[in-house]
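Note to self: the last two entries modelled the partners one at a time, which told us nothing about the interface. This time every component goes in together.
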Amino acid sequence: MANYKIRKIKDRFMCILVWLALLMALIPLFSILGEVVLKGASSINVNFLTQPTPTVGEAGGGVANAMQGTVLAVGLASLIGVPIGLMSGIFLSEYSETKLSPAVRFFNDVLNGFPSIVIGIFGYTIIVLSIGFSVMAAAFALAIIMIPIVTRTTEEALKLVPATVREAAIALGVPRWKTIVSVVLSGAKKGIATGILLSLARIAGESAPVLVTMGYWRWWFAGLDKPVANLALNIYIFAISPFENWQTLAWGSALVLVTLILGISVIVRIFTQEKY
Amino acid sequence: MFSPYKFEIESLNAWFGSKHVLKNINMKIKEKAVTAVIGPSGCGKTTFIRCLNRMHEIVPGAKVSGRVLFNGIDIYNEDVDPVQIRRKMGMVFQKPNPFPMMSIYDNVAAGLKLNGIKDKEKLDSVVERSLKLAILWDEVKDDLNKSGASLSGGQQQRLCIARALAVEPEVMLMDEPCSALDPIATAKIETLIRMLAEDYTVVIVTHNMQQAARVSDFTAFLYLGELIEFGPTKEIFENPKSELTEKYITGEFG
Amino acid sequence: MKNSRKPPVVIHNLSVKVHKIFKKPLTGDYAFKLLTAAFASSIFLMLGLMIYELIKGSQLSLQRFGIEFLIGSKWDPAISQVFGALPLILGTLVTSAIALLIGVPISLGIGLALSEYAPKRFGFAISFLVELLAAVPSVIYGLWGIFTLIPFLRNNVYVYLQGFLGFIPLFSGPIYGGGVLTGGIILAIMIIPMVSAVSRDVFSAVPDTQREAMISLGATKWETAKNVISYARSGVIGAVILGLGRAVGETMAITMVIGNKFQLLPSSLFDAWYTMAAIIANEFTEATYGLYVSALIEVGLVLFFVALIINVLARLVVWRSLKLVRGIARE
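The predicted structure of the combined assembly is written out below.
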């Protein structure tokens, strides 16, 4: 049965290819993380974490202002992004019977994963043209990136709360809105919190929208109508520069950023293992 | 080595993880006859039939010990390739499972195409023959390109039977093939089974005792993983040797 | 007699007004529903405003160039102040196509590995690692791209590629390490987490009865897997479209490795090129006059619509297919 032998060989061959595919994805992952750790570790010291960005020729310096700036931008963004995302998620989960719901969910999904540079341009036209390149503009753009993520994760977290919880509260005479706010929300708070954390990690790494709404900034915070330093954007600026001290700074910044983002991602995964 | 037995099962044991599902089954299944396997739910009859074509072991944690001689050769011998064994046996499942993304024609031809048969004329003739055998040809011959999932439940099951028959197996293993069907569809399939017995060895698991009595030549009664009694159907139903068998037959339990 | 009954009268009036408009009483429940609905509807406002602002910002460029913008291939901000986006559109499409050509088979392989081949616990660990890949920011991909991937490809891959296939124009020409192929490769790596996760999900949703049917016919593992892919094929298409959407919008990583050279067509896969997202990132802060900025915003407008169409298509296909797969399974 020659045909059967061929089938067996094909089967073996494809099995190997499938595992090879896995390897092809894992090799870049380990390479990226490995390089960031190897090339960035040498930069990390107390100075690095407490000093602002150096000028071009200057030795030393660090990421302190960039960390400040990133935290500020992300924090400001969440002031807008979290409430809107939270309420939208509540609407989608608790009032999914309305005609509005599918439309909201659809466009929310569409906006999720939209090119962040386009959202950056949007931030430019709305804020920069009136106030100038500023952390407010960056926060605006980052908030828009954040909202679909928070909406979706909030909706999913709320959906996990069993219907029996809602029914019990309603049977006790609690009005629907209070049921949602007091009972359902607290039942889902772990899922909602992790969703928010993930979205923060995501926007902390964004550099394209920051580039067009804020631009490069070398100093500490100087007002909401001015830019701030940004960890992700700095990596870009330093990486493409021809200056070695800046390139080293890029790797160091990358290590800090990766630690921050992956740290949050890993912690969140550990907490939501039931998902798998 | 001529043997009138298609299967000779010796000391067959099966486990799901640590759960001992089949306990020391010894049985000889005659060829070109219908053997029914009956028993209350959980007695292991589905596991038993799946041990005959080495389908039991595909579930993670499943284990088998013992020998199953098929045409005189132990299918659990380490040199034996399970894929080739399954090729020789057709299986029909409790719920009809046609391939919904394939047409009726392609469903029946699926096994043939796997074996490398590409000649259109050969495929056409085998598909027609199999659908006729499965008493489905007249109902679908006008539109073989319809999706396999567009048929009724009873028709889908007959499609699955045609699909299994197309590769010309020696054995047909049927795991409660009528349990998801209405009485009319069931009757059609029972007729079909009696016809198949002329050329194939049929083993059918059923929880419906009347069906076993109507359709089979031999009956095996399993209870909690053990073979309680096995013999010609007439004897089992009219003159059971074991008290347990009699209790089950008369409906005292199960 | 002065009393504190004023507030109830005000609320009563408001209630009556609301009742007249919405035909429903202003209860706590209804108010809350309205509130959340209002927040949720902001998504329409965002998208609508975005389209409006992008068009408004592109006005100068739209008026000056009209349809020529999409088919023009000259980009000269300095002297003639002429802008045309065709090379950018081509660059975006080609690099995305390369990303799909490389990334989709790998992603399908991973999806199969996770749903058909790997034991459960092993599968969790692998899914976890693949998702880590998704958490890495684009700019760090770019950093790695410049300092690790480019030298690696230049010295260990492209040289040999040109050695074997150099007679084909695509593989001829000078190799500096970055360029079109490198851009496609890095995009491929970036879309793998998403496409493989969706693939894994749609494959896992295929009912076991389908696999059993194949196995009982004497199919090999790979033949059974092919059947699974066939059953889930609309979901796979959705995953691919999602991947395309991601590749098209990718900015930092691609601008850091592709070379940012504005030309209608590259001379080879090893030559530098440009994409819509990359040019915006590169030149936006240096656009010194109105028309220049407007042209860049118009590039953003084009990118917006490309991404919108792709994303809408993806959601339609993925939603429909997940419903289909689960629907058939339920029968």
